[in-house]
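Predict fold of Isopropylmalate dehydrogenase-like domain-containing protein; 365 aa.
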Amino acid sequence: MATTRRSLPLLRTLIAGKTQTRNVTYMPRPGDGAPRPVTLIPGDGIGPLVTNAVEQVMEAMHAPVYFEKYDVHGDMKRVPQEVLDSIKKNKVCLKGGLRTPMGGGVSSLNMQLRKELDLYASLVNCCNLPGLPTRHEDVDIVVIRENTEGEYSGLEHEVVPGVVESLKVITKFCSERIAKYAFEYAYLNNRKKVTAVHKANIMKLADGLFLESCREVATKYPSIKYNEIIVDNCCMQLVSKPEQFDVMVTPNLYGNLVANTAAGIAGGTGVMPGGNVGAEYAVFEQGASAGNVGKEKIVEQKTANPVALLLSSAMMLRHLQFPSFADRLESAVKRVILEGQYRTKDLGGQSTTQEVVDAVIAKLD
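Predicted 3D structure, encoded as tokens:
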């Protein structure tokens, strides 16, 4: 799932008297190049629009993946068992947004997926895209968020009428494994610093345990700088000097807030890729989806921005060990953004989803 920051070494070969540039990628294991099945959940709202965009681009570049599509919606009581079976068989899923009902005691299907598949790490890559003007430059932040416990896990009940108790559970096991994932990601992607986000000045036991776990793991990675920041100060620093952050590791609720804030700073939720990963399974989706699922006008006008999910699908291709296809897809998307001719309304343009997709396909090398 990791996205490398430095370009791969280049090998020049002479073919038919012409000089061609090829990427040196990796030596594949037998079977690595076989087409892979991927579970596809179009979801609600803009989900079918942007997942269809990915399908078109994958077909255009003959990517070695094929999709098993399932109709799932956020108002269902549970994720259908056949969908879970498909993800467990394929190990990888690509999904659009699923609408989460407000109140009423209906559980979020997104949370069900994370718990059922133990997708304990959420990763959102928030970085400036060349050609897309933002208030801050040099933003390149990866937010890694614990995905299975804390306030966001929805453990709450009504004690007596008018009194609701919401539980925040933090365990050493989950804190250690998310910290280890963050440091491994930093190490493998040539990142220099990991920042732990917390509120241990108030929640001394819960967030204190999270910090203690991060500190223990940090000692095993002496080449990576480690620091800590209180979540309210973190939000202030994000909007004033975001370039100071590199990799951020957070408990569940803080991570959702921090990731969406960082996405807004770096260009908006429509361009930020992300995914959720565990020891066995991975689900890729738009990295920061605040408010996108329910925008019916965007659905009617077919002007949803497909960039975030296209970049998420590039992350998926790397996860599947198809780096050359991932590079082609990323390069095409970034060239479309840089040239600026085809952009959806959220990026200051007037293009439809299909026009952006056609532009990306035209830029595929």
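The chain has two domains: 34-125+270-364, 135-266.
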